[in-house]
Amino acid sequence: MKKVLIALGVLLTPVVTFAATPLVDNLTNVVKDLGGFVNALIAFFIGIAVVVFIYGLIRFVVNQGDEEKRAAAKWYMIYSILAIFIMVSIFGIIRLLGNTLGINQGETVTPPRINP
Predict the structure, then answer these.
(1) How far is 72 from 67, CA to CA, in rounded Å?
(2) How many CB atoms lie within 10 A of CB 50?
(3) Among 53, 72, 87, 88, which residue's beta carbon has the most beta carbons within 10 A?
(4) How many domains does the chain have?
(5) What letter does residue 59 receive in the DSSP assignment?
């Protein structure tokens, strides 16, 4: 049994070696797709925070007579503004660090290749 496994390992070595190039290309595509997904996710969360702010604003205006409901509406507005501020600040800090270090946003990073 060991001899069969060794023979298969020796015979499959070129297949594994030449399969590395498509793997690197696939990895590059996965990283690109992941970056696009993360950017869409950030925009989605900022949109949610804006909707929560508008919801709190409407509740604040509609409930003029009830102080408890107005306090809850203020809570929604304050924390949604805080969430928007934090998300945009982190996005800005990452962009600043990228520009400072010379990393271009949106540019594809090409991993090193081994040419057979």
Answers:
(1) 9
(2) 14
(3) 53
(4) 1
(5) H
